[in-house]
Write a structure and sequence with these properties.
The strands form 3 sheets. The chain has a 5-stranded parallel beta sheet with strand order 2-1-3-4-5, sandwiched between helices. Strands 9-8-7-6-13 form a 5-stranded antiparallel beta sheet. Strands 10-12-11 form a 3-stranded antiparallel beta sheet. The chain has 8 helices and 13 strands. The chain folds into 2 domains: 14-134, Rossmann fold (3-Layer(aba) Sandwich); 136-243, Arc Repressor Mutant, subunit A, CATH 1.10.10.10. Helix 6 crosses helix 8 (205-217). Helix content is 38%, strand content 20%. By secondary structure, the chain is an alpha/beta fold. The protein has helices spanning 22-34, 45-54, 71-81, 95-103, 116-135, 171-182, 190-194, 205-217; strands at residues 14-18, 38-42, 59-62, 85-90, 108-111, 144-147, 150-153, 158-160, 166-168, 187-188, 227-230, 234-237, 242-243. A hairpin with a 2-residue loop joins strand 6 (144-147) and strand 7 (150-153). The longest helix has 20 residues, at 116-135. GO terms for molecular function: phosphorelay response regulator activity; transcription cis-regulatory region binding. Residues 14-127 form the Response regulatory domain. The modification 4-aspartylphosphate is found at residue 63. Keywords: DNA-binding, Phosphoprotein, Transcription, Transcription regulation, Two-component regulatory system.
């Protein structure tokens, strides 16, 4: 493969590839192995679930067209139960599918056919964000934030409502919420909320993740009071934050 990227000394990061096309699996697996990743291939959702009983990977790459399940349901399950990155790699390029995949917790969405170098770059970007989300140090080395009766545990990406209901946030959601919590009552523009993602500040993923956070944090997401839109400037977390 003629790639301008060079293998990075990232160690054996584990990636599961879920796709019923064996040629595609071999292509993705071979590309990632060339750059130092450990990969395992699954042809069905059932096979993926069996692998997850053995080991939770750093990232799952999921096709939406599966023989035994809807790929979007798999994305939802991964986001709810496992603290790993999720990338959708599919031939379904409709905007509605892309938005739905991101809404359900996918960290990125790539449409086939794809450029192998871009795939590697996007995988690395997800893993960087996931690492930062898990290891980000809050003020005074604290790892628990409290705000308006809510509690966010940085180490486990766990968000707990005043009622006691809990969610395990995706790495993208966690990274964005942590940015807000470390800068409460300050406007964050779209570029800041993109962080180190390989995205344009115009990418709709920013709005999708804000929308997902609002659905959890707001009593009325259509009229948000916690994460406010500052038109022409960005978003603002309008709460007082206490770090424990």
């Amino acid at each position: 493969m003629n790639a301008t990227l060079s293998p990075a000394p990232i160690g054996q990061r584990c990636i599961y590839i879920l796709d019923d096309d064996p040629d595609l699996c071999r292509l993705v697996s071979g590309t990632l192995r060339e750059f130092g990743f450990e990969t395992y291939e699954c042809a069905s959702a059932a096979a993926l679930r069996n692998l997850l009983l053995w080991r939770v990977p750093d990232l799952c790459i999921v096709d939406l067209g599966l023989p035994d399940a809807d790929g979007l349901d798999v994305v939802r399950e991964l986001q709810a139960r496992f603290a790993c990155g999720v990338m959708v790699l599919t031939g379904r390029g409709y905007l509605s599918d892309r938005v739905m995949g991101l809404e359900l917790g996918a960290d990125d969405y790539i449409v086939k056919p794809f450029e192998p170098r871009e795939l590697v770059a996007r995988v690395r970007s997800i893993l960087r964000r996931h690492d930062k989300s898990n290891s980000a140090q809050a003020p005074e080395r604290s790892q628990i934030a409290e705000f308006s009766g809510w509690r966010f545990l940085v180490d486990s990406n766990t968000l707990t409502a005043p009622s006691g209901q809990q969610w395990t946030l995706s790495s993208g959601e966690s990274h964005m919420l942590l940015l807000f919590l470390k800068r409460p009552n300050r406007i964050l523009d779209r570029e800041q909320l993109c962080g180190d993602r390989d995205l344009s500040a115009l990418d709709r993923s920013v709005d999708v993740r804000v929308s997902r956070l609002r659905r959890k944090l707001e009593s009325d997401p259509e009229h948000p009071k916690t994460i406010r839109t500052v038109y022409g400037a960005g978003y603002l977390l309008a709460v007082e934050v206490k770090w424990l």
